[in-house]
Write a structure and sequence with these properties.
The protein is mainly alpha-helical and 421 residues long. It contains 16 helices and no strands. The longest helix is centred in the C-terminal third of the chain and has 38 residues.
Length: 421
C-alpha cells in the first residue's frame, strides 16, 4: 500500500505541479498585463464560484466514494450533475435580476459588473470538476486526473495572455478562468460517464438519497461551504474594510503561494481518500497512514514556508517587480498559518470517515466567526492590514492545531476500543 500510495500522490502532484508551474511561469507577464484592481475583481469572482460550487453538488460526489456498487455510485453522480445544472441556472437568473444591487453590496464598479453573469458558468464548471475528480479517484485513474489539471492551466493562461495583449475586454482574467474550466471539464465528463447504466431519477429515488446521504448533504456541505467562504473571503473583507488595491496585492500573493499548497495538499488529500475508502474497517491502518502523512508533510513543507517568512518581500520584488513587494510582505505574515494548514487540512476528511461531520461544522463556524470579528473589530480602531493578518494567522493556526490533536486522539481511542471489543 505504501508504494502504491506514494506512486499515486506523485502522479497527481505531477499534474498539479505542471499546471501550477504554467500559471507561475505566466505570472510575471500577467502581472504586467493586468492591474492589482483587476486581480481584486478576479479574487471576488473566485470567492463566488468557490463558495457557491459547494452547494451546487451537495457533496454527493464525496458520498459516492463510500458506495461499493458502481451502479449506485453513478446514480449519485447523476443526481449531483442535475443539482449542479439546476443550481447554476437559478444563479444566472438571480444575478441577472439583482445585478445592480449586488454591485452596490460588493462595491463593484459598473465597468466590471458584467463579470457577475460569468459566475453561474464558473460555478457549474467547478462543480463538474469535483464530479470528474471524484470519478477518477474512485476508478484509480490518477493519470487522467493529472491530465485534467494540466489542460485546464494551459487553456486558462493562453486565453488570459491573448486577451490581455489585445485589450479587447476589461478583466479578461475571469474570461480565461471560466472558459478553461468549462471546456476541460465538459470534455472530461462526457468521456467519463455513461448514464445508461444508471436508474431513472424520480421523487422516491431522490427521497431515498436524501435520507441515506443527509450527513453529507447537510453537515459536510455546510462545513465545506464555510471553509471555502472563510478562505476566499479575506480578499473580499479587505475590499470591504480597506480598499480593492490592497485586496489585489493579497489575491496576487495567494495566487503564487497557493501553488505549493494546492500541489501538496490536494495530491495527498485525494489519494488519502482513495486509500481509506478501501480500509474503512481497519482503523489501525488509517491511524498509521495518518501519522506518516503528517510527519512527511511537515518535513517537506517546513523549509519553504520558513524562507517565505524571512524573505517574502524580497522574493516577490525580485521575481514580479518592485510594485508587488507588498504582496510578499502579506504572504510572509501568513506563512506560519500556511505551514500548519498544509499539514492538517488534507487529513480533515478523517472526521467525515469517522462520522464526525457535526464537529467539523462547528470548527468551521468558529473559524468563520473569528475571521469576521478580527476584521470588524480591528477596523473600528483603525489598525493596519498587517495587524489584522498577524492576528488571523495566529488565531487560525491555533484552531488547526486543536482540530489536529482532536483527530489524532479520536483515531487512537477508536483503535483501542476495537482492540478490546
Amino acid at each position: 500500500m505504501k508504494n502504491k500510495f506514494i506512486k499515486n500522490v506523485i502522479t497527481i502532484a505531477k499534474g498539479t505541479a505542471i499546471g501550477q508551474i504554467i500559471l507561475f511561469a505566466a505570472s510575471p507577464l500577467l502581472s504586467r498585463l493586468y492591474t492589482p484592481e483587476e486581480y481584486g475583481i478576479l479574487a471576488t469572482y473566485t470567492i463566488f464560484i468557490s463558495t457557491l460550487s459547494i452547494l451546487s453538488t451537495l457533496k454527493l460526489e464525496l458520498s459516492m466514494q463510500t458506495e461499493v456498487d458502481n451502479t449506485k455510485a453513478f446514480f449519485l453522480i447523476k443526481i449531483a450533475l442535475y443539482f449542479n445544472m439546476l443550481f447554476s441556472i437559478i444563479l444566472l437568473l438571480l444575478f441577472y435580476t439583482f445585478n445592480e444591487t449586488l454591485c452596490e453590496v460588493f462595491q463593484i464598479s459598473q465597468e466590471y459588473s458584467w463579470f457577475l453573469y460569468l459566475i453561474p458558468f464558473g460555478v457549474f464548471a467547478l462543480g463538474l470538476n469535483k464530479i470528474n475528480s471524484s470519478l477518477y479517484i474512485r476508478n484509480g485513474e490518477f493519470n487522467k486526473l493529472k491530465d485534467l489539471f494540466i489542460s485546464n492551466s494551459i487553456i486558462m493562461v493562453l486565453i488570459q495572455i491573448g486577451f490581455g495583449i489585445l485589450k479587447i475586454i476589461p478583466s479578461a482574467l475571469i474570461i480565461g478562468d471560466a472558459s478553461a474550466r468549462l471546456v476541460t471539464n465538459i470534455k472530461a465528463f462526457y468521456a467519463n460517464v455513461n448514464f445508461r447504466k444508471t436508474g431513472k431519477i424520480n421523487i422516491e429515488s431522490l427521497k431515498r438519497v436524501m435520507v441515506e446521504k443527509k450527513d453529507y448533504m447537510l453537515f459536510s456541505t455546510t462545513s465545506e461551504f464555510f471553509y471555502i467562504l472563510v478562505s476566499q473571503s479575506i480578499p473580499f473583507l479587505i475590499v470591504l474594510y480597506f480598499n480593492p488595491k490592497l485586496a489585489g496585492f493579497y489575491a496576487f500573493g495567494m495566487k503564487i503561494v497557493n501553488a505549493p499548497m494546492v500541489l501538496i495538499g490536494k495530491s495527498i488529500s485525494q489519494v488519502y481518500i482513495s486509500e481509506i475508502r478501501t480500509i474503512t474497517d481497519n482503523l489501525g491502518k488509517i491511524e498509521i497512514l495518518f501519522n506518516k502523512i503528517v510527519m512527511k508533510l511537515f518535513l517537506v513543507t517546513c523549509l519553504p514556508y520558513v524562507l517565505l517568512l524571512i524573505f517574502g518581500s524580497g522574493i516577490f520584488s525580485f521575481i514580479f517587480g518592485s510594485e508587488w513587494e507588498y504582496s510578499g510582505k502579506l504572504m510572509s505574515i501568513m506563512s506560519i498559518l500556511f505551514l500548519i494548514e498544509i499539514v492538517v487540512y488534507p487529513l480533515m476528511v478523517t472526521l467525515e470517515i469517522l462520522n464526525k461531520q457535526k464537529i467539523l461544522l462547528v470548527w468551521q463556524l468558529v473559524r468563520g466567526i473569528q475571521t469576521f470579528l478580527v476584521f470588524h473589530l480591528f477596523s473600528k480602531i483603525s489598525l493596519s492590514l498587517e495587524s489584522v493578518l498577524i492576528t488571523i494567522s495566529i488565531s487560525q493556526g491555533l484552531l488547526y492545531i486543536f482540530i489536529f490533536f482532536y483527530m489524532k486522539n479520536l483515531l487512537k481511542e477508536k483503535v483501542k476500543k476495537n482492540e478490546y471489543a
